[in-house]
Write a sequence for this structure.
């Protein structure tokens, strides 16, 4: 199989996973929640009207569809002109920029969620506040094996950079790579820290659900850190072994795996919706 | 162990925190040497100001109910159980009451007492 066909197959898969599967699953999840927990009964879940929520979600789905269209256009261009490089340019840059476009709806969704919870907090008239009289520790939120694995992967990466520096390939940036990956890990660490020690976004959320949610975020961040470091290490190894042409395929697969994990995490999320009832009765996880 | 505060209650928030932590120690829900959440964590969870929690912790530390061990965090004091029984507020009220009675006996007026008290407090 020629390298460019393999690249286009993987790229089509990237379009499908990030611009179709992910928004579809998120949309289905939102519709399912709104159908199962209607505003009449679960008033606290809706700080804004259902119509407004639907409007925002539809807008995000539309953006995803437009991005999907751009992706199909890139593939069509590649097939028509039989170009080795995407858009006759640098494939890796095209994949990266396209990925940024693909995650734009997700970034907008994150901003929307922040505002949603802020509104929820403003409308919360409860004067009772609760907290656990226990310090939180990172090791309670993620298995030690995962923490050790993340540390081991990082140390191995530093080792790899030191090794390649002795015999660098063309374009190798040397120890700057360590700085870059360290920055990336600090970025993941910051979000994990916010999840554990940060302010409670949802004022109605119970302590057990919050713990599960924070734990999921911490594990996701650890996975993100491991995946990003492995991805960059793979690029270095492929370049060292003169297989640089496979770097684009690895990048695309990395983005897809990352998003598949996000989809899995979102779908696995269990929330106690009883806390959003106007008159909460019995607590239970749905 | 869960701590519950009511932001609408007449009792100041820091007093509610002090009382609840002392109560948790006396009831055995948290033991001597047990770690306590950081000021920031507790303030975030209760959605109150960091300074309020810091004030509660300062008072508890003064009463030797909790102790701060540098960067390791805050822990329940080894003598916390014994010290949680001591109510400084009660002592303050008792001493002030005695002072007021003595002042009234020598004929000091309310305004004289208030002015002098305010002056001494501002020193």
């Amino acid at each position: 199989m020629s390298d460019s066909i393999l690249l286009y197959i993987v790229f089509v898969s990237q379009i499908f996973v990030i611009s179709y599967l992910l928004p579809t699953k998120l949309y289905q999840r939102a519709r399912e929640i709104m159908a199962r927990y209607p505003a009449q009964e679960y008033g606290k879940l809706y700080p804004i009207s259902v119509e407004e929520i639907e409007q925002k979600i539809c807008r995000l789905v539309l953006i995803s569809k437009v991005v999907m269209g751009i992706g199909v256009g890139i593939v069509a261009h590649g097939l028509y002109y039989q170009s080795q490089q995407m858009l006759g340019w640098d494939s890796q840059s095209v994949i990266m920029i396209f990925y940024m476009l693909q995650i734009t709806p997700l970034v907008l969704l994150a901003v929307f969620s922040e505002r949603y919870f802020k509104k929820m907090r403003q409308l919360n008239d409860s004067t009772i506040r609760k907290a656990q009289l226990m310090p939180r520790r990172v090791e309670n939120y993620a298995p030690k094996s995962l923490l050790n694995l993340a540390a081991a992967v990082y140390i191995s990466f530093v080792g790899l950079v030191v090794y390649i520096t002795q015999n660098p390939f063309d374009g190798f940036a040397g120890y700057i790579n360590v700085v870059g990956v360290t920055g990336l890990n600090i970025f993941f660490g910051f979000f994990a820290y916010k999840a554990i020690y940060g302010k409670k976004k949802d004022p109605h959320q119970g302590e057990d659900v919050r713990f599960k949610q924070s734990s999921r975020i911490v594990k996701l961040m650890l996975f993100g850190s491991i995946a990003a470091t492995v991805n960059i290490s793979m690029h270095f190894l492929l370049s060292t072994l003169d297989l640089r042409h496979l770097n684009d395929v690895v990048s695309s697969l990395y983005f897809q795996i990352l998003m598949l994990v996000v989809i899995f995490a979102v779908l696995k999320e269990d929330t106690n919706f009883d806390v959003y009832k106007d008159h909460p009765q019995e607590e239970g996880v749905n | 162990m869960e701590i519950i505060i009511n932001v609408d209650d007449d009792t100041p928030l820091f007093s509610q925190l002090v009382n609840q932590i002392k109560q948790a120690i006396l009831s055995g829900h948290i033991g001597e040497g047990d770690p306590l959440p950081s000021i920031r964590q507790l303030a975030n969870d209760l959605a109150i100001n960091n300074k309020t929690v810091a004030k509660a912790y300062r008072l508890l530390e003064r009463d030797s109910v909790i102790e701060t061990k540098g960067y390791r965090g805050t822990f329940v004091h080894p003598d916390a159980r014994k010290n949680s029984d001591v109510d400084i507020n009660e002592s303050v009220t008792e001493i002030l009451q005695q002072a007021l009675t003595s002042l009234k006996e020598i004929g000091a007026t309310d305004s004289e007492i208030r002015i002098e008290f305010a002056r001494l407090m501002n020193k």
Summary: The CA atoms of residues 101 and 107 of chain B lie 10 Å apart.
